[in-house]
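Hey, resending since the last one bounced:
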Amino acid sequence: MSGAADYWDEHAGEHLSSKLHWEVYPTTAMFQAKLASQTWSSNEDTFAGAFLTKYGQEFRSMASICCGTGILERWLDERYRWRKVKIDGYDISEGSLKIARGLAGPSSRVQYRQSDANQMNIGNGVYDVVFAHGALHHVENLEHCLEATDRALKHGGLFYVNDYIGPSRFQWTSVQTQLANEFLAGIPDEYLARRDIFKVDPTELAEMDPSEAVRAGEIEAAVREQFDVLEVIPRGGTLLAPIFGSGCIKAEALELPEIIDKIEWLCEEEMRLIGTEKLVSDHAVIIARARRRRLWGWFST
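The structure tokens again:
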């Protein structure tokens, strides 16, 4: 997907630079930190941290696919600073990798390599864990990517997914649209840039970034096909992401106490609706175990 590589070379890291991204806005970020701390009663403020607390005591070799500018890998390097570990980051964008290498610094143990997740081969039986953080919704050839990931894991190795798994190309459902617009109906006009959520044209989105949410709605099923899924932890974002992504609330209004209170309420309400199965979670953490039994592995690794 050369078009995707070109796009991310040009836009490396931009999706995390604005509070108008639902996960970056301080109120929703704090709510996500609370959810993470409640996961497995870990008292961690990130889902990756909660995962490592429960599962990561013996990790020695780790990989991250679609690693972008290397935020996760630098964090892993610091987290395991007192342990000898192998950390590899893979991404299609050489521009993103250049930034990642620069930010990592000369003492970093992270090795960054260019690799297209749609065609990747990252080894056989090499890693204790592979991370896909915000990765799989950019992968068109999910089957190859997941098979290659399974092959790269040691026997019993773990696959950590934290991703958008909602409608492909952000084609919001009628339920999402109705509930999001009902929430917006309760906000005064002077605080709104638009009163209803926007559904992007999938063709226009594909022309801009061929990889964006290309098969997002198929991710969970594809992971279950290739791996033994141990846990799925809902993170929400089903209403928040369309509202923020559509730019419905004016940036200056997001600083107002009354709007902050409404967003806090929506964070809780969204998870309540997901818990009662009236809404599905568009963002989730999936923990899976390598299924492939490699009797041949002793000869191929």
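The radius of gyration is 19 Å.

Sorry for the duplicate.
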